[in-house]
């Protein structure tokens, strides 16, 4: 038997509980991993509470990422004892995820963990840091350098936003942080933000073209916020869009794109090729900003996940939370 968080939906309703499951209940896959750490992400919160249509089949073990040690493998890429990381691929939504002591998955979903970091550090970074790094890499490939000017980060107090600030600052960028919690300015400045703005400046309907302010942006919010970000980018700027905290809609116009040459870069952090995932994790392991933020992490036990989820969904949880599934 292994301990797990299990989400069920039947005639008794939708519910999540900390329980035990048999190892032979694990889904099919080439690699069985002894999970060491997972995380608690917003998507996991939606899955656990049922406040969003995240879970596609029941019962489900949530947890969209994990790090651990291979126990058995029929995939030639991995052997028993290898340390591995998984992000995305529908894990925790369509396939049992990381909030359990073991997971069985396809080998193609895994990458080797960089040798310079521990499983705890990998999950302290987690999908949030991984997504932030994908955004930074996309902007760099677009041609962005610190000399082009300030970079705006929306959703700054969230996981992706916090890592984006830390990574960009470590690379020499001047970072503007947009947040709904301006009282947390000291925290954001500690990550490397040089300017803090209230998200209210971006979250309401705005003009199609606005004052040119930022060379680039990383947006995890979507909706009116992303529209206003596009409208306020400098000519030939770009925004890496990776989230939808405000909404899936984009109530914008073509004006920023055809009059200023603004580019919208979509970031898919769920199904990236292995080489792209490996590059992002190599960069994260070498990033002083990311690693510094990873060390300032709260650790909880599997049995504490449900209570922590309530904090998360109520907006009372700040910073990264790693789940030690054996604690």
Q: Secondary-structure blueprint of this entry?
A:
Blueprint: E1 2-10, E2 13-21, E3 31-39, H1 42-49, E4 65-73, E5 83-87, E6 102-105, E7 110-112, H2 119-142, E8 151-153, H3 159-170, E9 175-179, H4 185-191, E10 193-198, E11 214-219, H5 223-232, E12 233-241, H6 255-259, E13 263-266, H7 274-285, H8 288-295, E14 298-301, H9 305-313, E15 321-324
Parallel strand pairs: 8-9, 8-11, 9-10, 11-12, 12-13, 14-15
Antiparallel strand pairs: 1-2, 3-4, 3-6, 3-15, 4-5, 5-7
Helix pairs in contact: 1-9, 2-3, 2-7, 2-8, 3-8
Throw out a few tags for this protein.
327 residues, alpha/beta, seven-stranded mixed beta sheet, six-stranded parallel beta sheet, 15 strands
Mean pLDDT: 95
Q: Estimate nothing, just give the exact number of structural domains.
A: 2
Number of strand segments: 15
Number of continuous helical runs? 9
Summarize the amount of helix as a percent range: 25-40%
The shape, in one word, is: globular
CATH class of the largest domain: Alpha Beta
For the report, how would you describe the main beta sheet? Answer: 7 strands, mixed
**Architecture of the largest domain, according to CATH?**
Alpha-Beta Complex
Q: Give the N-terminus to C-terminus distance in angstroms.
A: 16 Å
CATH topology of the largest domain: Quinone Oxidoreductase, Chain A, domain 1
Query: What structural class results from the helix and strand content?
Result: alpha/beta
Strand content: 25-35%
The low-confidence parts are none
CATH superfamily of the largest domain: Medium-chain alcohol dehydrogenases, catalytic domain
User: What is the string of SSEs from the N terminus onward?
Assistant: EEEHEEEEHEHEHEEHEHEHHEHE
